[in-house]
């Protein structure tokens, strides 16, 4: 007797690699002790939230005895929060975004899901550069769509605009980019974004439905070596930004984010209305009340990014000394080194024998690589050097 759909059975058989390795880590820590395992599996920010978050929570708690303190609200979010977010997004995107151009969501994941629910017909395709965040395929499939990965440039994981353009068909509904990128740490420069926008503008001519350009930007705040994430909303009228406060405020468990629509999009109020309705019918209803209230006092705060910069340098040193080939991340908190053997699953298993936990690259659509999340204490990064060296020397 089969309890699940065939689709879900397939998902479980294929597995979510990040969670698999994370659960293996729990077993190893139980067996050998917390300090004996170097766990780089999960992008779970370990830095405490900035002081503004705690201050704001105290203010929220002091007002918790009033009626409807955490009651229902307008589905797009509290008006005051949308007003504040509009200013926040306008500064980042270097264009005027109205409160009516955005919806507060249950994290970036919730934002992507309501967008796909609002615009995808069964069989529609969403193109994304590969490697990509492992959940994208599931989010697209949730609304009957199909994810179409397109390989990034070899070597530096940059956007291959010509390859993306060549992959567009009459079924293409959106191009989804993630910059700074998880898992590679690449940041797509302004000239590549402009080239992609120009290509999509040309390809959209004569179509009944436009091709959307969606930027998933939860790591926008975390860049290194003077690199910056260029704005997307001013360069293409059918563009959207999806983001969250999971990483910059260390609020990963609170699930609060947003979708912002380009102010130049024709009939954008119709798309926003579709996002709001999708938010309701998918069961999110609205973003968490407490998370939204926190934003009112913490939008201009963020964690200490210099700590992540030091960790990146420490991890680069460890990988260099142990002989790995890797791209130096320009943003986010991940390395995506080349596996010493083609079967990176076997290599990741060997790393686990030495109590170093990484995620196979095929979980991100690119076999032959593995991901290391450096949102852990620097001491753990340095302690992993021995295990990384021993695993590599085994092949």
Number of domains: 2
Name of the CATH architecture of the largest domain: 3-Layer(aba) Sandwich
CATH topology of the largest domain: Aspartate Aminotransferase, domain 2
Compute the number of helices.
Answer: 14
State the fourth-level CATH superfamily of the largest domain.
Answer: Type I PLP-dependent aspartate aminotransferase-like (Major domain)
Q: In percent, how much strand structure appears in the residues?
A: 5-15%
Instruction: Estimate the global geometry from the Cα principal axes.
Output: globular
CATH class of the largest domain, please? Alpha Beta
Protein topology:
Blueprint (H helix, E strand, L loop, with lengths): L5 H9 L2 H16 L5 E2 L11 H12 L16 H15 L8 E4 L1 H13 L5 E6 L5 H7 L3 E6 L9 H7 L4 E7 L11 H15 L7 E5 L22 E6 L12 E5 L6 H14 L7 H10 L6 H17 L12 E2 L8 H10 L2 E2 L1 E2 L9 E4 L4 H6 L1 H9 L2
Parallel strand pairs: 1-10, 3-4, 3-5, 5-6, 6-7
Antiparallel strand pairs: 2-8, 7-8, 9-12, 11-12
Helix pairs in contact: 3-10, 4-10, 5-9, 7-8, 12-14
């Amino acid at each position: 007797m089969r309890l699940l759909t065939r689709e879900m059975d397939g998902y479980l058989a294929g597995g979510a690699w990040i969670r698999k390795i994370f659960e293996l880590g729990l077993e190893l820590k139980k067996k050998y002790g917390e300090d004996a395992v170097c766990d780089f599996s999960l992008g779970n920010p370990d830095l405490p939230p900035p002081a503004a978050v705690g201050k704001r929570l105290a203010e929220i708690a002091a007002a918790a005895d009033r009626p409807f303190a955490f009651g229902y609200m307008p589905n797009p979010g509290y008006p005051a929060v949308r007003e504040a977010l509009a200013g926040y997004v306008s500064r980042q995107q270097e264009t005027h975004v109205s409160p009516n151009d955005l919806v507060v969501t249950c994290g970036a994941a919730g934002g992507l899901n309501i967008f796909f629910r609002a615009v995808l017909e069964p069989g529609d395709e969403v193109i994304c550069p590969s490697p990509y965040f492992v959940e994208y395929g599931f989010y697209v499939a949730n609304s009957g769509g199909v994810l179409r990965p397109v390989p990034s440039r070899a070597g530096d994981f940059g956007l291959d605009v010509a390859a993306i353009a060549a992959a567009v068909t009459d079924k293409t509904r959106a191009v989804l980019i993630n910059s700074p990128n998880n898992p590679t740490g690449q940041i797509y420069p302004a000239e590549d974004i402009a080239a992609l926008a120009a290509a999509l503008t040309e390809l959209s001519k004569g179509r009944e439905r436009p091709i959307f350009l969606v930027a998933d930007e939860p790591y926008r705040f975390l860049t290194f070596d003077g690199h910056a994430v260029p704005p997307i909303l001013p360069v293409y009228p059918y563009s959207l930004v999806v983001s969250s406060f999971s990483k910059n405020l260390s609020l990963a468990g609170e699930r609060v984010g947003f979708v912002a629509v380009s102010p130049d999009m024709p009939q954008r109020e119709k798309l926003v209305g579709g996002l709001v309705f999708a938010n309701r019918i998918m069961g999110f209803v609205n973003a968490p009340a407490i998370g939204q209230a926190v934003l009112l006092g913490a939008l201009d705060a963020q964690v200490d990014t210099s700590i992540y910069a030091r960790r990146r340098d420490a991890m680069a040193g460890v990988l260099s000394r142990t002989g790995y080939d890797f791209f130096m991340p320009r943003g986010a908190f991940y390395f995506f080194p080349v596996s010493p053997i083609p079967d990176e699953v076997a290599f990741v298993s060997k790393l686990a024998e030495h109590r170093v936990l990484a995620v196979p690259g095929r979980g991100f659509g690119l076999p032959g690589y593995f991901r290391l999340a450096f949102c852990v204490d620097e001491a753990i990064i340095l302690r992993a050097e021995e295990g990384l060296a021993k695993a590599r020397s085994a092949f």
